[in-house]
Amino acid sequence: MDQTSLLWLFVSSLLFCTTNQACLTVSPSRSQLFKGEFVSLSCEEDDSSAGWKLRRNTTRETRKECGDGWGKSAGSSCKISYIHTMDSGVYWCESREGATSNSINITVTGGSVILQSPVLPVMEGDDVTLHCQTKTSNLPADFYKDGSLIRTEPAGHMTIHHVSKSDEGLYKCHSSSHGESPSSWISVTGKPTTTAPPPASEAPPPVSEAPTPGHEAPPQLVFRLVCHLVVFCPYFISTLLMVSLYRHRPTGNDPPVSMVITQPTRGEQGLDDDYDNIIPSVTTEYHF
Ligand SMILES: *[C@@H]1O[C@H](CO)[C@@H](O)[C@H](O)[C@H]1NC(C)=O
Ligand SMILES: *[C@@H]1O[C@H](CO)[C@@H](O)[C@H](O)[C@H]1NC(C)=O
Fold this sequence. Notes:
- With 288 residues, the chain is of the alpha+beta class.
- It has 4 helices and 19 strands.
- The chain has helices at 3-18, 218-248, 256-262, 271-287; strands spanning 22-27, 32-34, 39-45, 53-57, 64-65, 72-74, 77-80, 89-94, 100-109, 114-116, 122-123, 128-133, 141-145, 148-153, 157-160, 169-175, 179-180, 184-186, 188-189.
- The strands form 5 sheets. The protein has a 5-stranded mixed sheet, with no helix packed on it.
- A hairpin with a 5-residue loop joins strand 8 and strand 9.
- Helix 3 crosses helix 4.
- The longest helix has 31 residues, at 218-248.
- One 2-acetamido-2-deoxy-beta-D-glucopyranose is lined by residues 103-105, 185, 187.
């Protein structure tokens, strides 16, 4: 997978995430992993005081929190330094009040082949590319959906154009040299109607040769990015303003006379540190 497609995946998962209260992302961004890989899961949230924690269901246990027998918890993220096949399961973030994020199915294989498929649901109408791969390269492979052969791809990847609800299902791939991948469920969600303007033209997008797992057409993407920037900029600017106001607070307004009066009563050392404390005490002295 080249850098552009990785960027597309990243941007689309960001967009997916900003529409949710909290969003679970996984790195590497795959739902199938090789045994022994390092995996990092994080809850991207707006409100860190809500105490979002990772939880999972596996075949052995349910609702187990990160750090309680699995993973290493750090704030609202969780790291697994060596993932095992028994770590396969469904993962999600849950707040202290019981609110939940999206959930992600993770399958860990002890074999040498995985199907690389989208971790997050695919938007209706987008293109999705599946890769059949080893740790190092794509494999010529047969692709299956719900147990039936759908395509044979010598290059090791297949693209489904304009995904619809009927493409939802359980996918896997099989390589004659390396064997079969686990199966992964691909889910398709309807396009949100309020967040994007209607497409500028009705012409179908050009079919490209390169794998294009981008989940959204560029004009809509730019529109949504701008929306999110507009939402976040006031936060950012007011934070900067508050920080700079705070930094300037001690200088300027304090009457110089208080310095003159207090100097003899205080030691030379630590004067600067006590500066803030001195002024209120002097003011109260004046009131008596
Ligand atoms: C985890 O397991 C519990 C108990 O079986 C179930 O109620 C819950 O829906 C599961 N969570 C997910 C995200 O599958
Ligand atoms: C996880 O997999 C099960 C079937 O294997 C499927 O029903 C479910 O929708 C999947 N969940 C997600 C979040 O993809």
